[in-house]
Design brief:
The protein is built from 12 helices and 28 strands. The protein is of the alpha/beta class. Helix 8 (about 355-365) crosses helix 9 (about 390-400). The chain is globular. Residues about 10-15 and about 565-575 have low confidence and may be disordered. GO terms for molecular function: endo-1,4-beta-xylanase activity.
Length: about 575
């Protein structure tokens, strides 16, 4: 007898038609005409300005009016004297709801940041920012979570009070916690899983009903890991705890310039080399972190004291040294770290320093993705230095530099949360960044210890669920390298490698994200399951088939679908 197995990967069927789905789209192009408001405007009154100024009023001392250009109606705040002078609409926000916001913005002259703000009973909520231009419309996308019900007032702000602010297609859509969770579930089904249908038949093609099926996931495709350091090299318990859980890593300090060359000309890659050997032994990919760090407090003294010309030589040598040594051994390079908050090299070498570094990095390793790594792009909407629009503008500056148009770039989001995470702002910020089409990684995720151990665990679970569910996140690494004296901000275990509450969260989610199951085929020999992307081991047993070959496991892979068309995989097992 021959047992034949047919696997059919099926297109995602979707959720209930009445569910209010989330719109992940954003746009970073400046367009001649704005798009229609998302969600029909949500709770915004007169979102397309088709009814004059109904629902809108002045904020501060601006004057407002409706204008029409080529059948497009919009609202204008002019005669401004203060940054906050603009248009406004009074709203009522509800506690524990998550709001996604969007609007299309234009300024009368130049190119200036415009920020959307909600004045609430508990303070000012910074919703989102966009670099608005004249003569075309730019999309501002943002979000906020509301912790107290009450009246609120939406307005816009630009530090340049001499320009008019034009606004159109405004939307503010509330979601309940249950709806938000359903978005995550829907996205995971689409982005992280495939539906698999197994048909068990005999050699004549007759179904074998009630066959017992065991599916065990042997390898997870989605990269999830944590940082490590040299302490793991001599600690077997640390090694076992780490290698049994994670599929990607980064070295905490061992590749950084101040570690590998603390004195001029005295390079030492001993620790990094050993960590690479450890990672290779366990088949765990490594991110290269970092080539250069723009924070002057992280630059070793001998580098800080160099003249401009000597610094340029030293930087070129550094890039060549670390990247040539580990070329082919890393899956990514953080070429410049935190160059939105800091500018040590730009101050010393000129405004195109970062762009020059990426150019040099590309020449050495043109096949590996080159990341810009930054914090507070998704963590804190109040930080004006690293908003999504500023991140994108920096990427464009690097791309515009001579011979940088073919760079293989990536977006690195450190994700160091020092305040309670705002999931709506996180999601909308990633939406905006994703519109670049570049890969996005979470590179250094942690929750500040000052928030307390229980809050750390609670917030870590919220953030990990949100990030893993976002269809444009390509991988997640936590910043939890263990040291005897404690971790940077967030440990996952104690010094005996027993889980802390944060470690329990990680294990809980790993259990959810992996797809191992047992089941029974139906009366027609069919078995269906939704499986996470990865490699699986399959075992089949049936009371009418006693061949020893059935005891042998079969491996198959579930990967993402390029199209909605069905793809079929045929396997045969002799019996």
């Amino acid at each position: 007898m021959l047992l034949v197995l047919f696997f059919f990967t099926l297109p995602f069927a979707g959720f209930g038609a009445n569910a209010l789905t989330y719109d992940y789209t954003a746009n970073i192009e400046c367009l001649a005409n704005p798009h229609k408001p998302q969600y029909g405007g949500g709770i915004i009154i007169n979102p397309e300005l088709n009814h004059g100024l109904r629902g809108w009023s002045t904020f501060g001392n601006a004057k407002i009016e409706q204008r029409v250009l080529e059948d497009n109606k919009y609202i204008v705040a002019h005669s401004r004297n203060q940054p906050e002078d603009s248009i406004s609409q009074k709203l009522y926000l509800q506690k524990d709801k998550l709001y996604t916001f969007s609007a299309w913005i234009q300024v009368s002259d130049g190119n200036f940041p415009v920020r959307a703000i909600l004045k609430t009973t508990t303070g000012f909520k910074h919703v989102g920012t966009v670099f608005a231009k004249s003569k075309c419309w730019s999309m501002l996308k943002g979000g906020l979570t509301v912790n107290a019900s009450g009246p609120a007032e939406l307005y816009f702000e630009s530090k340049n009070a001499s320009v008019e602010i034009w606004v159109d297609s405004i939307s503010l859509q509330p979601f309940t916690q249950k709806q938000w969770k359903s978005h995550q579930d829907q996205s995971i089904e689409k982005a992280r899983k495939r539906k698999v249908r197994i048909h068990v038949v005999d050699e004549q093609g007759n179904p074998l009903p009630n066959a017992s099926i065991s599916i065990i996931q042997k390898k997870v495709s989605f990269p999830f890991g944590t940082a490590i350091n040299k302490n793991i090299l001599t600690n077997k318990a640390y090694q076992n705890w780490f290698s049994s859980r994670f599929t990607v890593t980064v070295f905490e300090d061992e590749m950084k310039w101040y570690t590998t060359e603390p004195s001029p000309g005295q390079e030492d890659y001993t620790a990094a080399d050993a960590l690479f050997q450890f990672a290779k032994k366990h088949s765990i990919p490594v991110r290269g972190h970092n080539v250069l760090w723009d924070d002057p407090s992280k630059v070793q003294g001998w580098v800080s004291s160099l003249s401009r010309n000597d610094l340029a030589v030293a930087v070129k040598k550094r890039i060549n040294s670390v990247m040539s040594r580990y070329k082919g051994q890393v899956i990514a390079w953080d070429v410049v770290n935190e160059n939105l908050h800091f500018s040590f090299f730009e101050h010393k070498l000129g405004s195109t320093a970062s762009a020059t570094f990426y150019n040099g990095a590309h020449r050495i390793d043109g096949t590996t993705t080159l990341f810009m790594n930054e914090y507070n792009t998704i963590e804190d909407s109040r930080d004006r230095s690293s908003t999504p629009d500023k991140y994108i503008e920096k990427l464009k500056q690097i791309q515009r530099f001579l011979r940088n148009n073919n760079l293989k770039q990536g977006i690195g989001l450190e994700s160091h949360f020092s305040i309670a995470p705002d999931l709506a702002y996180i999601r909308s910020s990633i939406d905006t960044l994703a519109s670049t089409g570049l890969p996005i990684w979470i590179t250094e995720l942690d929750i500040a210890s000052a928030l307390g151990q229980q809050a750390q665990a609670r917030y870590l679970e919220q953030v990990l669920r949100e990030l893993h569910a976002h269809p444009k996140i390509n991988g997640i690494i936590m910043w939890s390298a263990w040291k005897p004296g404690g971790c940077y901000q967030m440990c996952l275990t104690d010094n005996s490698f027993n889980n802390l509450p944060t470690g329990n969260v990680v294990d809980k989610l790993l259990g959810e994200w992996r797809s191992s199951l047992k089941g029974t085929a139906d009366g027609e020999g069919f078995f269906e399951a939704s499986l996470s992307h990865g490699v699986y081991e399959l075992k089949i047993s049936h009371p009418n088939v006693t061949s020893s070959s059935l005891a042998q496991s079969q491996r198959f892979e579930v990967s993402s679908a390029d199209t909605l068309e069905q793809r079929t995989l045929h396997l045969q097992v002799s019996a």
